[in-house]
Each structure stands twice: as structure tokens, then as C-alpha cells.
Amino acid sequence: MKAKALTLALAALLPTTSVWAASDISALEARINDLESRLAQNEQATKKAEDTASSFEFHGYARSGLLINDNRTGATGTGPYMTAAGDLGAPVGRLGLEDTNYLEANFIHNRQLDNGSSAMFKIMLADGVESSNDWTEDESELNIRQLYAQFNGLPSFSGAFANSTVWAGKRFDRDNFDIHFMDSDIVFLAGTGAGIYDVQLTDDWKANFSIYGRDFGSVESAGTDIENYIATMNNHIGPWQFMLSVMDSKDNQQIVVKDSDDKVDANAKATRRAESGVHAMFAYHNDTFYGMKGSSKTGILLGSGLGAQLKGIGSDGNLNNDAKAVRVFSYGVADLNSTWSVAPAFMAEYSKDRIKDNDEFKWGTFNLRVQQSFTENFAMVYEGSYQYMDLDNSVDSAKGSYYKATIAPTLKLSTVAGFFDRPELRFAVSYVDWSNDLDNFAVSTSTGATTMGNGGETIFALQMETFF
Amino acid sequence: MKAKALTLALAALLPTTSVWAASDISALEARINDLESRLAQNEQATKKAEDTASSFEFHGYARSGLLINDNRTGATGTGPYMTAAGDLGAPVGRLGLEDTNYLEANFIHNRQLDNGSSAMFKIMLADGVESSNDWTEDESELNIRQLYAQFNGLPSFSGAFANSTVWAGKRFDRDNFDIHFMDSDIVFLAGTGAGIYDVQLTDDWKANFSIYGRDFGSVESAGTDIENYIATMNNHIGPWQFMLSVMDSKDNQQIVVKDSDDKVDANAKATRRAESGVHAMFAYHNDTFYGMKGSSKTGILLGSGLGAQLKGIGSDGNLNNDAKAVRVFSYGVADLNSTWSVAPAFMAEYSKDRIKDNDEFKWGTFNLRVQQSFTENFAMVYEGSYQYMDLDNSVDSAKGSYYKATIAPTLKLSTVAGFFDRPELRFAVSYVDWSNDLDNFAVSTSTGATTMGNGGETIFALQMETFF
Amino acid sequence: MKAKALTLALAALLPTTSVWAASDISALEARINDLESRLAQNEQATKKAEDTASSFEFHGYARSGLLINDNRTGATGTGPYMTAAGDLGAPVGRLGLEDTNYLEANFIHNRQLDNGSSAMFKIMLADGVESSNDWTEDESELNIRQLYAQFNGLPSFSGAFANSTVWAGKRFDRDNFDIHFMDSDIVFLAGTGAGIYDVQLTDDWKANFSIYGRDFGSVESAGTDIENYIATMNNHIGPWQFMLSVMDSKDNQQIVVKDSDDKVDANAKATRRAESGVHAMFAYHNDTFYGMKGSSKTGILLGSGLGAQLKGIGSDGNLNNDAKAVRVFSYGVADLNSTWSVAPAFMAEYSKDRIKDNDEFKWGTFNLRVQQSFTENFAMVYEGSYQYMDLDNSVDSAKGSYYKATIAPTLKLSTVAGFFDRPELRFAVSYVDWSNDLDNFAVSTSTGATTMGNGGETIFALQMETFF
């Protein structure tokens, strides 16, 4: 009886646990089962959504704006290549001088295999028009600038090639780099061809190999397309870069040079068009700003024949057979503190027998852009630019200086994200002037070549600029 | 012994609970731990997939179709601006008249910071060709119509600016609005510039400020780009809108007007091209359809000089110095019941000394589109359009009427989603006719200007139209 | 007392379970509650991310490459339509012959309703340029080749229409198919119009109905657009396909034919341009490779008048009134084993009174592409191509053979994914030659028509090709 009473007492005690055990815990387990199966499904769905979303990318660069001069008409002829030396590729600081509505939009398709290999396909749609109007068909320059595919992580690639990327098609070379503030690449290698990146020659030494073709025109009488074939080896050894390009353009001398009205222009033609060329670059990529926190790049470029176009490697067919050129550059970017950022840049070039026998061109540009942040979204941006030119086209010569000063109140999404954070929405006022000696000089010897005109102009700008 | 037996009995009773407690519940806990960590990961992944997916947007408007006249050839010269007054911006109902393959595709890149501020970058790629063929390079009008960036929710903006949007670049103004059924904006402010939206002046009063530039052409002898600068203040006070624009285009009188063959056409030039202008609009945005359920908009536009182009503000450089114009409009949309929807629209304009001294133009259009839904996917759409014109270009004059009647069996994804739900796939039959007096009249006084030709034509159409 | 002791003993035993029960299990339940609500939220977010991601699609086809001939200049005039019969649509194998940078990029917007119905909107942006340069505005052919919308699963559609797709706009017909290796469609029906796919006439019989319009040009004196209207019924009965098209192009005889300089070229005009036409295709879609594992397609096409352009249905307006043509084709693809894949193709055509009275054209092409896989990523691809021509343009005649042999070391993301897996990055060497008799012959009788020139050329290629 005692035992029975005890059992009953226990029965009264136990239900709270045994009921948990028998039904509630089973219920919890069922809910956990359900959660596990739903989560597994949702993980799949998330993976699929991620894959779908990341199979497409949309990136690029754009700027769009309005330029007004102190005469209340549109400013013409301005831009980073506005000086007489601009025809030689000599840039000045771009801030406040650009009137173009310019776009580089990349549409990218990615494909990934489970073994880690992947394919990437890229289109670049580009345009550049000066008109402020919203329907610009008549001056549209829309075109496809890049169109290529590349593979990464191919399991068949091993040893030195294990981490290589192979590509073919039309593209800008991956390792091009630029001084953004002067709108000038240091090297701009581009065209249609094929190549391989990141061949690991030693632990420290990575090399790229490529062949690019470019078109110089056609010789109609012969039914021949004159092309320039550029073979490049590009080496990275720690912070050092050594890039060597050789090029070959058979029958380039037969090309007839035409003026902007598509008429034969014998004056403008090189004395004897080069049919081969060599181009070299040594560069030092420093992860300090000349010793301080920041970054900087310094180097020298050398070229002869078709290689004497030092920036756009192999892109200019109208170079003299014995053209030679050397260019030096150094630039850096540093965020000094939460308020001030600076980006000085220097570039100078000497070239000789470039287009005509006995021509001789010297120029050097110094540019300084400074950002002074006031709030999370507002900064004053300043730019000063100076260029010295001593130009002799073998017929005529001129020398003198160009200078520009710009102040630009600027809105950014985040000033603390640094100098390169974009979009920027800016208003800018610039003053530009130059030596009178330069006013009527042109590098080209063709009749009617455009000259610098007169300096001493104030220019107002409204502009957006973005990387996206 | 009893106790022992009891303990054993209990031992037999308890295991189901104590085993639950000791191992099963721990197992459940482990599974919950696992679920929690997997779910946390998946939430991150979902967030990332969402961010990736929503960083890109693809939107726009397009129509594409085929027009066949009662002579079994392609209909030419048709469209909402087909009448003699069309050159003045006088539209008629568009249904069944459009032969163009027209596209406005927006590619949008969004960037969002955790503090709630965001940047948006937009490209609009646009085209319009009549050809039904599938390779239209020769008549392609592909161009970039918009290219701008804007910021929202900048933390540095406070007070009246707290909810403002700032932008720069080339764009259509955000607050443009249109009578879709006549393919006519009420105002279409567009160009390249910068501005700010939604400055909160009082609790009820929001204002936008902007400067847009537009190009009128160049004076080659002077190396000058003639631009028109438009400063606009656009005010919303409750349902009321007041928009004021002033514009300035120095040296616009020096522009030479050319005909379609790019030859100088002195006849077509305004007597004395305006170099400034004023434009104003008062509008009432009603959230009822003239008192019933629906919506409607009513207003008046006034302009002088360069402001006399009342729709495309500041877009027409060939206006007379003392041009003046006034336009009134009213239109609305109402879903009367599940079957019937109606959209009446009225627009009329009077302008004087518009292009030549002493010219005088009057026109008024009434349009009615009606949708009769039969099933979830099928509707009959009807449109009647009437336009009265009394036109005197200072040399010649004509007056009379245009009318059009259209019936269009239409497929929609969902007729219940309303009048504006798209895509629509439609077949349409239209009859158009007009007064004989209008046949040979042109607003332009230049030799060889296109006229209306003869009326009395039946037109068959196959078309898709979509907003996306 | 015993009972008390026992109870205490039990109390010592029970806590581990009753504590679980009272607090830990509640805690677990709370965590499960939390998990359930978070997972529900995340499922929603995942659904939204999926919907956002899948509302946009980016697909297409592209190739880009460089062609160098054995003279170290750009190869000109090469391509799958390089032979004298190419003007008649006679292709040869494409591998190693293509110099164009060609793009078809589709931007697709999807919209899905919960009832299962959906709308799809598609743009195709296309370009084709030969230049290897990276800025090709002067020869850009960018244009919108497709622009249409279609509906699927409309609830109002039932019976035979229950699974139908309806569409309108500018498009390539869905059921076009091609011999990829010769860059030739079997039928390429395209233009602007409307239609319906997959009307289920019987259990085995599905039919498509469509009307496409195409432009042949304009008669300026009459202000008339000459269009060709093509009505097509396309039937699938099991593996059999029967496609019938009739076409009507009023006033097509009035069209004036112009040469490439836009000058009237009476020589090139058909004797009497056809104003109507009939086109038929019978095809057998076999899911075996002539009995073995793989696939193949075989058929015959017949046409008269405007239907005598057998591939591009209704696309050629310059056909003779009594033109007649017949074409046969057979091709297949088979992966024989893990190493070898083969794709033979045969196409031949006979046409008469095609452009001029009494002209007569016969040609036949046999092409064989073979893939030999070496690793997961590397294959050798071989192609041999032979074409026989017997061509009489009523003024002049020529007959003879063309042959090509190509070997192409090729990189693929996965060779095991088969013949059509892309991208491919390839190097190719081809040798092409033909009978001397063909050198100076052209199908066109217009003065200055392009001829084949001389054969016997080795061509080197670097190329990427992708479907994406």
C-alpha cells in the first residue's frame, strides 16, 4: 500500500517530465526535423540565388558634365590633352577640363565549375560625346572596345602554369596602369589576340606572355590589311616590373595618310613609316608613398620605331622608321590624415625623328591634386598643373609653359573612403593659360592642323565621375 | 524488498525520461546549435545574394511593330506627330500609328552604405528605327541618352536638405510627366548639368533646383559652341506644382540653320533667333479622376523666347526672339469597374511670332482611350483622336481637322492590373483622315518641307509595347 | 520511512530530468521558435533574392580573334562565305577563317505571376567589326537585332492553346536551327511581326503560326515603303517538321538597286523582281547520329519567287519573278568516346532564273569537324571542308572546287562537356585553295563585283568563341 501510494505520488511528480519526454520533446524533434529540411532547401535556394546573381557583373567608368567658359558659351578644345604637346600624348591635370560624356560599361558573364576552374566573358560598351543633348545619334561613338574570354584554374595546368590565366579576344591588357588624375595610362596595351598571365617562373618571378594585333589601315590597290603584331613579355619580380614588347608591321610604309576629311595628306605622313619596333618599361611599384604611408609608382619607358609611341604600345602606325623616345614618370597617392589627401604626379618625355626626320620634342608635366575633407560627404578638391614644352616638328618650333589651377567643391558618398572613392559630384572653376609662343604651333605639319589658340580662360564645370 | 522492487519498477519507468534527458536532449541541443550556426551563415549568404542581385537593375520602355496600309505596303509618315501641327509638338493618339522599333533600356548600378546613404548610377541606351529587318546598322540611332549619378540620404545633409537627392550628369529630369496615350510629355526637361531634389522649404513645400545645358550647334568661324543654359526651380506644394525656368544662350543668333542635306537653309531660320527665354508651368496633380476614383492632372504652360518650346524646355534653338506660347492640358485615368477603363486627354496651344515674325499657330487635340476587359488576358482597346489646327506660318496658312479611330484586340499578362500594365501584344486597325486644306501645308517655310499629304487611309498594326 | 528515503533517493535521481524539463527544454523551445521565425524570414529573403536575380538574364554568342596570312599581313576576304558561291549562301567550314569581332548579347527581363503565367522581354544588341583595334566607332555595326515580348501560360488560353506562347515585336524565330560549324542556319526566319508557338492540333502535332514583315527599301518618287509580309505555318509531328511560308511584297518591282556607293546599278537588278513567293521545308530531327548515339538532322528546302532565298526566308528582295531553288542538307554530331567527337555536314543547292533569266547555279559543300580530347581542358580540333561549284550568272560562268584543311589546338573549360561546350580559346592554322577557273568569277553581274581572287594561302588564327 505504501508502495502504491508512493507510486501514485511519483506519478504525480513525474508527469511534468514524462509528458515532456513523451510528446513535447517529440514535438520539438519534429520541429527540428522540419527546420533542418527547410534550411537545407533554403541553403540550396540561397546558393542558386547567389550563383545566378554572381554569374553577371556590371562594372565600369563614366563621367558626364557641362563646361562653360567665361564668355558664357561652351568651352571647346579643353581637356587633359589640350596643349600643343597633347598630340604627343602629353597630358595635364584633368580636373575641371572635361566636357565629354564618356562611358565604359562592362557586362560580364561568369561560369564556375565545381572543380574550381572558371570562365569569364567580358564585353565593354563605350561611348564618348561632347553634346549635352539627350539624343546624340549624330555624334555617337558607341562601340565595343573589349570582347574576350578567359579561363582560370584549369586542372590541366600545373607547375609554373598552375595559377595562370589564359585568354583570347579583344581586350585591354590586365596589367595596364594609369595616372588617373592626368587621364593617362603609363602603358596601354590593347588589341585583339591571346595570352597567358601569371606564369610562375620562380618563387618571386611571374611573367605574362601575349600577342596582340592592331590595324593600321589598308592598302586598297593591293587588297591588303596592314596590321601590327605585338609580342610582349611582362615580368613582375617583387615590386619590380620589366615589360618588353617587339612589334612587326609588314608593308606599313605603303599606307597613305589621310586628313580628317578623308583626303590624302602627304605632309602629315612620317618621312618613312616604321615597320618594326621595340618597347621597354622598367617600373617600381612601391607600397609606400615615397617612404610614407600610401603608394607610389616610378619608372622609365623606352622605344624605337613603332615602339616610340610609349603609352599606347604599337597603336600608332605613323611613326618614323628611326623614331626614338624615352619617358620617365613618378606618382603617388597618400591619405595624410583624415582631412588631407595628396596625389602628385610627374611625367616627361623626349623624342626625336619621331614623325619627320630631325623633329625633336621635349615636354614635362607636373600635376598635384589635393583633397581637403570637411564632412563625411563634402570635400574641397584642388588641382594645379604645369607643363613645359620645347617642340620642333622639323619645319616649325615653339617652346613655353602651360599652367592650370582648379578648385572643386565636391560631394562624395564617403570622403573617408579615400581619394578614389566614387561617384563624385563636383562643381569646378579652373583658370588656364600658356605662353604666347605656343598659340599657333602644331606638332602636325599638315596644312590646317589644329593649334592651341589663345590662353587666359576661366572655365566653369558641373560634372559627375564614377567607377562602378 | 518492497522498496527495492519499487525502485526497479521506477527504473523501468524512468529510463524513457532520463534517457531523453541525458542523451536525446543533448542531441537536440546539438542539432539546434548546428541549425543556428548554419542559419546565421545562410542569412549572411542570403544578404550577400540580395545585395548582389539588387546592386544591378534593368528597366525601361520599348515598343516594336509592323504597320501595313490599305495598299499592302508599309505605312509611311504615320505616328502621333503625323499632322501638320506635329512640327509644333501637337500630338494625336498613338494607338495603331507607330511603326518604329523603339527602345529605352536603363542599366542601373546601386551602392548602399550601412548608414543609409546610397549612390545610384544610371545609363540609358536608346534606339529608334523603322526598319522591320533584323540588322539595322545603316539606320541605327543607338545612343546614350542618360548618364548620371545621384546621392540619397547623405549624412552631411540636414535641415531642409535632410531628404534631398543630389545629382550630376546627363539625364531626364525626375519630375517630367507625360500623357502616355499621346506620346507627349507635359514637360520634358533634359540635358547635362546638376541639381538637387526635394529641398523641404516648409512642411508642405518641396523644391528642386537644377542647371541643365543643351547644345544648339557651333559657329565654326568663331570656334564657338552655342549652348543653352537652363536654370529651373520646380515647386511642389501639396497637389500644386509651379515650375519656373529661365534660359540663356549667348550668340545663338549666329547659328546657321541647315536642311536635312546639311545645306544652309535661310528660309527655315527664325527671323531673329532668341538668345534667352522664360518658361513657366502651373499644374494640379489630382488623386481623383475629376472627382471620381482615379487620377488626373490639369495645368497651363507659358513661355517666351527660347521658353516658347513649351514641352522640351530649352531644347529648340530656332525660336524667334519674341516668340510667345501658351498651352493648356488636362487628362486623367480611371478604372470604372472590372471591365471598363477610360483615359481622356486634352491639350491645346496658341503661339505667335514663333519662328517668323507674324506667324500664328493654334491647335487643340482631344483623345480618348478606352479598355474593355473580357478575360484576365484579353481586352479590346479603343482610341478616338481629334485635332483642330489653324496654322499660319506668315507665308501660307491652312486650317482644318484631323481624326483617327482605332480598335485594338490586346493581350495582357493581367487586364485587372490596369490600364498601364505591360507588356501588351496588340493587333490594331485604324482609320485616319483630315481636311483637304491641310494636305499641302507645312509649318516650315523652307523649300521642300514635308507636308501631310492626303488623308483617308486604313492602317493595320501588329505591335508589342512594354514598360519593364 | 522507507518511502521517505525512497522519495529522497528519487529526488536525487530525478532532478537531472525535471530540471531539463523545466528550464532547459523551454530554452530549447525558445531557440526553436527563434529559428523558425528567422528561417521563415530568410526563406522570404531568399525568394526575393532569387526573384530579383532571375528577373534578369544575360546570354548570347560572341567570337573575337586575329587572322594573319602567310604574307604577315591581315587576311582579307576570308570567312565561311568566302567562295564565289558564298553570295548565294553557300558556306564552307568556319574554323580558322573568321576575322570578325562578332557579338550577339541578349538582355532579358522576366516577369512571373503567381498563377504561373509569365512575360519575357528580350533585347539583342549585336555588332560585327573586323578591326583589331579597341575603338571602332568608324566601322561599328552596333544595332538592336531583336526587340520583342512574349507571354507564356496565360490562364485565358485553353484547349489547343493551353501551352502556347504568344509574341510580338522584332525577333529571330524560335524554331530556327543551324549548322554551327558552317555558320549557316538551315532556316533563318526573322523580322518584325507577331505569332503563336505550340498550338497543340493533335496529341502528336504542334504548330506555330506567324506573320513577319521585312523591308526591301523605298520608292522615293511614290513615298512608299516596300515591305515583304511572310505568313508561316510551322508544324512538328514527332521528329518530322513541315514548314510552309507564303510571302507578298507589293510594288517590289519598282525598287531601284544600288551599289555599295549608293549609285543606281541596273546590272545588278533581277530581270523582273518577284512580288510574291512560296517556301517550304521538310526536315527530320533524329535523336540518333544516323543510327548511332548522337543526333542528326536531314531535310529539303524548296522555294520559288521571293521564296527562292532558302535560308533567310523572305529576306532577299532582289530575286527574279520566276526564281526557283531547292536545297538538301544533312548533318550530325556524335561523341564517339571520351576522346573523339565528330560532326559531319552536307549541304547542296540548285537554283535557276534566280536573279537574271537563264542564270543557273549549283553548289555542294561537305564539311567535317573532329575533336580529339587530350585532357580535361585541351583538345585538338580538325576541320576539312570541300565545296563544288558550277555557276552561270547568264553572262559568265565558272566551275571548280574549293578546299580547306584546319588544325586547331584548343582550350576548353571542359572537353568532356562535349563539342558545343564554350568558351573555346584556340590557335588555328588553315590552308585554303581553289580551282583557278573560279578566281575572277562573281555571281553578281554588276560592274566591279568582288571576285574570289587567287587561292593557295596559309592562314594563322588566334580566337575565342563563346555561347554564354
Automatic annotation (TrEMBL), chains A, B, C:
Coiled coil regions in record: 25-52
Signal peptide: 1-21
Location in or out of the cell: Cell outer membrane
Classification via SUPFAM superfamilies: Porins
Bilayer topology term: Multi-pass membrane protein
Keywords: Cell outer membrane, Coiled coil, Ion transport, Membrane, Porin, Signal, Transmembrane, Transmembrane beta strand, Transport
Superkingdom of origin organism: Bacteria
Protein family: Belongs to the porin LamB (TC 1.B.3) family.
Protein's name according to its UniProt entry: Carbohydrate porin
UniProt organism field: Vibrio tritonius
